[in-house]
Amino acid sequence: MKRFISRLLPQFIKNQYHLAQAVIACVFFGFPAKRLKVIGVTGTNGKTTTTQMITRILEQAGKKVAMASTINFQIKERKWTNASKFTTSSAWKLQKFLREAADAGCGYAVIETSSHALDQGRVWGIPYEIAVMTNVTREHLDYHKTMDSYRIAKRRLFEIAHKAVINADMEEPEFFRLPGKEAIRYSTKDPSAHLFASHVELDFSGTEFTVDGTKFRLHLPGLFNIENALAALGVARLLDIDFSTAQAALASIASVPGRMELVENPMRADILIDYAVTPDAFEKLYASILPLKIPGSKIIHVFGACGERDRGKRPMLGEIASSNADIVILTNEDPYHEDPERIIDEIERGVTKKKDKNYFRIFDRREAIRKALTLAEIGDIVLITGKGAEETMALGDARIPWNERSVIEDELAHL
């Protein structure tokens, strides 16, 4: 009944409710964000990894930090999993978190800040010190309807914040650069940007690049992780944290759960878990792995699409995967209340180049993963995308326990 009523109400009415909740929460918890320097990270892709990187740099600099991300929360040394499936918590939970952080003596809070939270006013009362933009690409059009509305929602973070860090390589970066506010632009393409990554080297064990004469080493593969690192370095520069400190911090990150996460295996294949759920994320994923593909090896891609979200992107995901992978396996993924078979049907419309022995449609996600591992040989790349580090799968109102890495390791043990 609650879901039915919610669907009937116009979004602007629901937004008034969220805003009222934010005002009440701020008053109740005593506007805790005023006691912190808050850094907000927004963007379609890369938010979680960038948030983790910024947090680690601050810690390396001796700061006491709180962090709220899609995958986990942290207040100083205490860490716990984000099991909510929300990027940004409700206003009440967020203000409670910030109050606990301030009371624990934290000086900084790094918060993944979604377009939904900005549009709904859930972050009202938070005086962001720095806004970070990773990118804006197609996503959430089920909610925002148009890309212009999506950009406008994200721009609100930059209207609030005092300073900004912006990806100069994305579409329309100047839209987020507001008059009178200090902004740092970063790039892997434009040498005129404030932070430019040169001497880039990529492999599955990590990446290397140089910024302003300082060489950085990441244990995270992918060109997009260099972009995420540059965003974090932009924050370091605005906070007067030297690059040698940032260098040590970034090198200390062994991995980010569910983000280009490599699973060791006796088959000597490269098994990668990634949260990629958008066409842009798929494009960047393949741009990173295709140059590392061994001649004669295969790319096997297992994925689906989330229910009750932007349906228009589904055939786009299918087309990108079928154009780049050698074997495509479509499967179930968080259908919520939508017919999961219809979701797969809509992805399948874009799978135009693998309608043969190299295309499989396996509804059960565990069976789909098992099939991919069975087909994999030495040197092959197995991509399993869409769930990342999530701990549940959404089936209607139910949340079924699901951990991608655990499933993969369990199936490997049985091969």
Q: Compute the number of helices.
A: 14
Q: Can you say what the CATH homologous superfamily of the largest domain is?
A: Mur-like, catalytic domain
- Residues in helices, as a percent range: 25-40%
Gross geometry: globular
Q: Strands of the largest sheet, in order across it?
A: 4-3-2-5-1-6-7-8-9
Q: Taking Cα atoms only, what radius of gyration do you get, to the nearest Å?
A: 21 Å
Report the CATH topology name of the largest domain: UDP-N-acetylmuramoyl-L-alanine:D-glutamate ligase
Mean pLDDT: 93
The domain tally reads 2
Can you tell me about this structure?
A hairpin with a 2-residue loop joins strand 11 (206-211) and strand 12. The protein has a nine-stranded mixed β-sheet with strand order 4-3-2-5-1-6-7-8-9, with helices on both faces. A six-stranded mixed β-sheet has the order 13-14-18-15-16-17, with helices on both faces. Strands 10-11-12 form a three-stranded antiparallel β-sheet. Helix 3 (47-60) crosses helix 9 and helix 11 crosses helix 12 (340-348). Helices cover 37% and strands 22% of the residues. The chain has helices at residues 2-8, 11-29, 47-60, 91-103, 115-120, 141-144, 147-160, 223-238, 243-251, 279-289, 314-324, 340-348, 365-375, 404-414, and strands at 37-42, 65-68, 72-75, 78-81, 108-112, 128-133, 163-167, 182-187, 195-196, 198-203, 206-211, 214-218, 261-263, 270-274, 299-303, 327-330, 359-361, 381-385, 392-395, 398-401. The protein is built from 14 helices and 20 strands. The model has no long low-confidence stretch (mean pLDDT 93). With 415 residues, it is α/β, with parallel strands linked by helices. It has two domains: 2-251, UDP-N-acetylmuramoyl-L-alanine:D-glutamate ligase (3-Layer(aba) Sandwich); 261-414, Mur ligase, C-terminal domain (Protein-Tyrosine Phosphatase, Chain A), CATH 3.90.190.20. 49% of the residues are buried.
